[in-house]
Design a protein that fits this description.
With 631 residues, this protein is α+β, with helices and mostly antiparallel strands. The chain is 38% helix and 19% strand. The strands form 5 sheets. It has an 8-stranded mixed β-sheet with strand order 5-4-8-2-1-11-14-13, with no helix packed on it. A 5-stranded mixed β-sheet has the order 16-17-18-20-19, with helices on one face. Strands 9-10-15-12 form a 4-stranded antiparallel β-sheet, with no helix packed on it. Strand 6 (94-96) and strand 7 (105-109) form a beta hairpin. Helix 3 (248-259) packs across helix 4, helix 5 (325-344) packs across helix 7 and helix 17 runs antiparallel to helix 18. It binds ligand BES and zinc ion.
Length: 631
């Protein structure tokens, strides 16, 4: 009897979880018809900026009557065929619904009794949100065009008709025909060997969510780093990329030690042209990365630690809906810092965590309460809007709180079992919390009482007992900054030659706070020269306007705009014209747009740069700037 009612309770809980897991960013109906495998076949038509071919979907059906509903965006559907024996295909019927601005259009395919495969013949549109077609001029080599995809969050549907929900996992194969001299790479095993002949085959044997399907085509070279790691990049970038990224194997080893075996075979990195809109994207077996991490001194490789960490948090255990995005990014940010600590030592971890906390506090100061919640409500919104510092930094801080409360050894064991338990599954926040209670909290209620789980996950802001990561190295940087700001020392006397990139970033942010009188214990503005003069002092001592380190340059240029330091104007323009990473360019445009003259300049630069930016960056900056037509 007790057993029966227990079963009922479990059944009800499971049902509630499934209902909760409803992914409102997909039209798909996986509970009735679920795609299990996808076979892709394309011609890459650079002159038309179109992928043309077919997607053949193999489905599992629990409902014999339900049609197959797929997500699409701006796809041209030529014809649909269905098959009952898996090999012979017959003409099928389909209907393309009306298109929603965020979700695209549902493609409904009628399934004959016992049909298990559906082939869709289609082509993409030149403006597909998940594709960027680069002219030769936008590449490093300037000779050949380039194509790359970016599917997360819901852009896979703009180049493949599929159930575009992270709760649906598929295996896939692909055959890709390209111009003969170009190489195609995917987030999969390459079956075509080393021949460069314009005809490439791929296979991904582990089930992955659609947002991890990825393709790039260009004049690419490969450099092995170790037996299982390597780098792809354009010929003129490959040597620098290989040098910069040669700690990759150490990172893989460190992560395996902490969280169990790397389960994807190879780990390669593709360094893209500068218009790649993100820092990195964790496509399985093949991380996509911005060239702006190639600083020359490995100082920005935390990005690789981050994308690599996703091989556990995200790719192995995946957020079931975009509401659960923090399960991907918060875990990954926490793992990223553990990897950095293992490879580069505790001080590096402390600096990264302190910079992260600062970002988080700044973000919280400007966000609506409802957007400060880990288990975010994104109904009616583009899931890309949920990509703030909340899932990343608040998520990481929550895990750090658990680590500090239960002890590192215990928490590491918990995470390792968590990754194993949910391997190759997509889970919701509720499922994580249930697992956390069962496997960590319940065994020590006294300790658990110190971590307000409900508050962490469902309330805005940061809970009172949260960890406050600090860095002794940053304390020393602040001393130097104060001494300079109070005119006790000249910039030349700042021991900056020994500073890491992270110390530089902290210095610049601290100085900016002082300019705005936000920093504690700094002399009042009245006792100092005006900020453009102070900027000039720093610049002549450290040549910041010319910095080749993208993070430092970004921070400096942002300050330059804010403090009206005009000698940096030309560099601001050059930066905006050559880099497409949204995290950098968006804030620079926003900062410019705060004054009328700045807004005019922003629109003038943007008019010229816009054609070189990725659709994702364009969408954000269009919305921010609202430049007058013709500008
Ligand atoms: N998965 C994200 C990138 C992403 C998030 C793409 C949401 C589309 C929607 C990736 O792992 C990431 O977080 N990249 C960061 C770098 C990281 C070091 C914080 C980025 O691109 O800035
Ligand atoms: Zn990430």
């Amino acid at each position: 009897m007790i057993y029966r009612s227990l079963l009922t309770i479990v059944a009800v809980i499971t049902l509630v979880m499934t209902v909760n897991a409803q992914d409102y960013h997909s039209y798909a109906n996986p509970s009735g018809v679920r795609v299990r495998h996808v076979d892709l076949d394309w011609d890459v038509l650079f002159d038309q900026k179109v992928l043309k071919g077919s997607a053949t979907l193999t489905v599992d059906r629990t409902s014999p009557t339900e049609p197959l509903i797929l997500d699409t965006r701006e796809l041209k559907i030529e014809k649909v065929e269905t098959s009952t024996d898996g090999t012979r295909f017959e003409a099928g019927t389909f209907k393309l619904g009306v298109s929603d601005k965020i979700l695209g259009a549902p493609l409904t395919v009628t399934l004959p009794t016992r049909a298990t495969r559906v082939r869709i013949h289609y082509s993409t549109s030149p403006g597909a949100s998940g594709l960027q077609w680069l002219d030769a001029a936008q590449t490093a080599g300037k000779k050949d065009p380039f194509l790359f995809t970016q599917s997360e969050a819901i852009h896979a549907r703009s180049w493949i008709p599929l159930q575009d929900s992270p709760a649906v996992r598929v295996t896939y194969t692909a055959r890709v025909r390209t111009p003969r001299n170009l190489l195609a790479v995917m987030s999969a095993e390459n079956l075509s060997g080393t021949a460069r002949d314009g005809d490439y085959s791929f296979r991904m044997r582990q089930p992955i969510p659609s947002y991890l399907i990825a393709l790039a085509v260009g004049d690419l070279r490969f450099r092995p780093l170790t037996r299982r790691t390597g780098v792809y990049a354009e010929p003129s970038v490959i040597a620098k990329a290989a040098r910069e990224l040669n700690d990759t194997e150490k990172m893989v080893v460190a992560t395996e030690r902490l969280y169990g075996p790397y389960r994807w075979g190879r780990y390669d990195i593709l360094v893209l042209p500068p218009s790649f809109p993100y820092g990195g994207m964790e496509n399985p077996r093949l991380t996509f990365a911005t060239p702006t991490i190639l600083a020359g001194d490995k100082s920005l490789v935390s990005l690789i630690a981050h994308e690599l960490a996703h091989s556990w948090s995200g790719n192995l255990v995946t957020n079931a809906t975009w509401r659960d995005f923090w399960l991907n990014e918060g875990f990954t940010t926490y793992l990223e810092r553990r990897i950095l600590e293992a490879v580069y030592g505790r001080p590096r971890e402390e600096m990264e965590a302190a910079l992260g906390l600062r970002d988080l506090n700044e973000e919280i100061a400007s966000l609506d309460d409802r957007d400060e919640i880990l288990h975010l409500d994104l109904k009616g919104r583009d899931p890309d809007d949920g990509s703030t510092d909340i899932p990343y930094e608040k998520g990481a801080l929550f895990l750090r709180h658990l680590e500090e409360t239960f002890g590192r050894a215990r928490f590491d064991r918990f995470l390792k079992t968590y990754f194993n338990h949910f391997a190759f599954q997509s889970i919701t926040t509720d499922q994580f919390v249930a697992y956390l209670r069962q496997n960590l909290l319940n065994e020590n209620p006294a300790l658990a009482a110190n971590v307000p789980i409900e508050e962490w996950i469902n309330q805005p802001g940061i809970p009172a007992g949260a960890p406050k990561p600090t860095s002794p190295a940053f304390g020393r940087v602040e001393e130097q900054a104060k001494n300079w700001l109070s005119r006790k020392i000249s910039p030349k006397q700042i021991p900056a030659a020994k500073w890491t990139t992270q110390e530089w970033l902290h210095f610049l942010r601290y100085v900016q706070d002082a300019f705005e009188s936000k920093a504690a214990n700094t002399p009042t503005p009245g006792s100092r020269p005006p900020t453009p003069a102070l900027m000039a002092e720093l610049d002549s001592a450290f040549h910041l306007t010319r910095s080749g380190n993208s993070e430092i340059a970004f921070q400096w240029l942002l300050m330059s705009i804010r403090n009206r330091y005009e000698p940096a104007n030309a560099r601001v323009e050059e930066f905006l014209m050559t880099i497409g990473r949204r995290k950098f360019i968006r804030p620079l445009y926003q900062e410019l747009a705060k004054t009328p003259e700045g807004k005019e300049r922003a629109c003038e630069i943007y008019r010229r740069a816009r054609p070189t930016y990725h659709p994702i960056a364009v969408a954000s900056i269009d919305a921010d700037l609202k430049c007058p037509a013709g500008n």
